[in-house]
Amino acid sequence: MSRLVVVSNRVALPGESRAGGLAVALQAALDETGGLWFGWSGKIDPSHSGKLHEQHDGNIRYVTIDLSRRDHADYYNGFANRSLWPLLHFRVDLVDYSRETWAAYRRVNALFAEKLAPLLRDDDMVWIHDYHLIPLAALLREHGVRCKLGFFLHVPMPSSDLLAALPQHSRLFEGLSAYDLVGFQTSRDLERFQDYVRLFGRGDVISPGVLETAGGRRLHAGAFPISIDTAHIAQQAGEAVENSSVRRLKDSLSGRALAIGVDRLDYSKGLPERFRAFARYLQRHPQQLGKLTYLQIAPVSRGDVAEYRALREELEQLAGHINGGHAEPDWTPMRYVNRNYAHPTLTGFYRLARVGLVTPLRDGMNLVAKEFVAAQDPEDPGVLVLSTFAGAARELDSALLVNPYDLDGVADAIATAMRMHRDERRERWQAMMGTLRTHDITAWRRDYLAALASA
Ligand SMILES: O=P(O)(O)OC[C@H]1O[C@H](O[C@H]2O[C@H](CO)[C@@H](O)[C@H](O)[C@H]2O)[C@H](O)[C@@H](O)[C@@H]1O
Ligand SMILES: O=c1ccn([C@@H]2O[C@H](COP(=O)(O)OP(=O)(O)O)[C@@H](O)[C@H]2O)c(=O)[nH]1
């Protein structure tokens, strides 16, 4: 059997707990197969030594590299998170492009290729992840790498007119043609990529999922919705009643229902809109006042980037304003927490909640939505309120689907979730859980790697 080599900017090193679906999912996938995980160490090395760090945990070998201060600023915070992230989330208004950060992006990809190539064997299956590393396959080929190279995009693929707004878009996206298989989260993402190849990439769509690139190379592409370790999360949530943080949260609610949101503090997650929708719920449904407490967990993410800092300030103001306007001496409508929680606690929090609020403006998948469902008590499940703009909405279509820009609609969905009878909650939950049991993280990895093997 071939060895699996996973390459991603973000690596979940042993013992690390940090918000972010890519690392959570790849950890679960590698736990099953073992293999090599190569990527950024998460550290900055002012001496730019380029030294590799290596550690082992079970059957996984981790090889990581530090970034120089300049590369961290220009590649990670710069081109990846201030050019590509907003672009791929349909926020052209926030795209900040410069030739300097584009050069840093290519430089770090070249560094990854130089360090990774000597570690590879011809029969490896190399699976490269996300927008940070689009050029990596072409650069590895220049180093003589001959094994199968697959790519998976965790974020949305926007429409081609938006992509074309990025200077250098042709050079960047041409890089995808060096892969054997390019995977997307949903069939909509795949369709938009095919449109881009036809309209701006000088290529052709031979049949759905089979493309001919400008250079005449055949490229396979497909939709592979990422998922969670469903059985493990369900079990973890069932055991979480023992967890002291979960018990403390339960006691603190004094019998009130809980609504929960869990998101990195990121503008793609629609948090200001969600806070406003919650305020709208309090205004539109006065008969429910005092019956529901909303807990928003939002660990700080990419805190060096100006847009993320501005968002943090905005949310602090909004949370203060909402509580100031609606709190009673014995009830605070919302609790806003910037801490990161480990999964055993989070799954217990999900299980306590009557309402799960997942309302991103755009999201590749959103694993929190899936985790919320998997963590519910089958006899008395909570209700998921889910944005139609999350990739997860395609599979979790028994959730209460909302448009996150429609504040009244989100407000009313919260009220509906509060009123929903147990039979309807169970029916909706069973439909979603059925999907998650079949389409779990194992199925995702297996389907993708099988497609890569035959590409
Ligand atoms: O690595 P960070 O900069 O700290 O950011 C965390 C991750 O955010 C994004 O996650 C995406 O992947 C999830 C799993 O496929 C998906 O459910 C979610 O919709 C995406 O936003 C990003 O794409 C990752 O590269 C980051 O590691
Ligand atoms: O305090 C937290 C907040 C989030 N997460 C995890 O971070 C991931 C977030 O993934 P998602 O796909 O929802 O969004 P992303 O952050 O990757 O955009 C999920 O597995 C969450 O359980 C976590 O472990 N602790």
UniProtKB/TrEMBL annotation:
Keyword Signal attached: no
Domain of life of the organism encoding this protein: Bacteria
Enzyme class: transferase
Family matches, as InterPro entries: Glyco_trans_20, Trehalose_OtsA
Pfam families in UniProt: Glyco_transf_20
Record key words, sorted: Glycosyltransferase, Transferase
NCBIfam families: trehalose_OtsA
E.C. numbers: 2.4.1.15
Assembly, per entry: Homotetramer.
Protein name stated in the entry: Trehalose-6-phosphate synthase
Described purpose of this protein according to its UniProt entry: Probably involved in the osmoprotection via the biosynthesis of trehalose. Catalyzes the transfer of glucose from UDP-alpha-D-glucose (UDP-Glc) to D-glucose 6-phosphate (Glc-6-P) to form trehalose-6-phosphate. Acts with retention of the anomeric configuration of the UDP-sugar donor.
Species this chain originates from: Cognatiluteimonas sedimenti
Catalytic activity, reaction form: D-glucose 6-phosphate + UDP-alpha-D-glucose = alpha,alpha-trehalose 6-phosphate + UDP + H(+)
Family: Belongs to the glycosyltransferase 20 family.
Pathway: Glycan biosynthesis; trehalose biosynthesis
GO molecular function: alpha,alpha-trehalose-phosphate synthase (UDP-forming) activity
